[in-house]
Amino acid sequence: LALKKGIGIYNFFVFSELNEDAVCLAEDILRDGNYKKILAANGQGGRPVILFTDDYPDAGEETQTELRQRANALGAVCVKTDLLSLNLKRAGSIYYFLIDTDRMENLSTLAALAEGKPRWRTRSQEEQNGKTAAAFLYVFTEGGENGAYIRELRKKNRERLRDVVVREVQDYRNMVMNLLYDIPLYAPFLAGETAGSGTDAEPRPGEEGVIPGEKRLTVTIFGSGKIGEEAFRNVYWYGQMYGWALEIHVAGRHVRELKQDL
Q1: Among 24, 132, 136, 252, which is most buried by a count of CB atoms within 10 Å?
Q2: Predicted TM-score (pTM) above 0.85
């Protein structure tokens, strides 16, 4: 898939796969003009072209058909072409969202983009001085060692990626962080004693390190998978508040494995 001459005024938001995560993200980007903030940060404007790749209309699955209908409602373009086969050198700027259901595929696609021939335009000297990027690569991962791999890949291919901004997106972490932003752990501290918090006059039997009169913040996490682990780590970190004892309970099928991982 190649762009026709003169298309450079357009900016493209390219999704690596037509799936639930990708469509939800596209809907959120277009909702209330959020895309304007993204483009403005790169000194650009206008409405972007939304492009979903790796879509097979002949598949016929009901879920895929519904996703395609939602994509069409956004005015998006759905193509069979793989993201790596796109030639978008005539585009203004390209925002790649590597968001395959199999997160490991996103790393493979990133490596192919970083080590292969550039699929985006070369910036002018003026753009380089103004720090305007030709492409953005948002790589959705599950965290862990992936961040180190991405940093090493960027370092190794610094010259090829000179016109590109690469950013790792840990969706589980973002989900938890958004929740803690909407419902901050310090809310009981501001509201006084509420449900989920209390005051211990004396330590409970068998407990150590509990100061008499110290307030207690109790958080219960349901689920011990990837999201539960990320929730535990963030609650543990942000729950360290002076004068409050933090107590975290986890209910799930794999609590023992979670404890070992931590």
Answers
A1: 136
A2: no
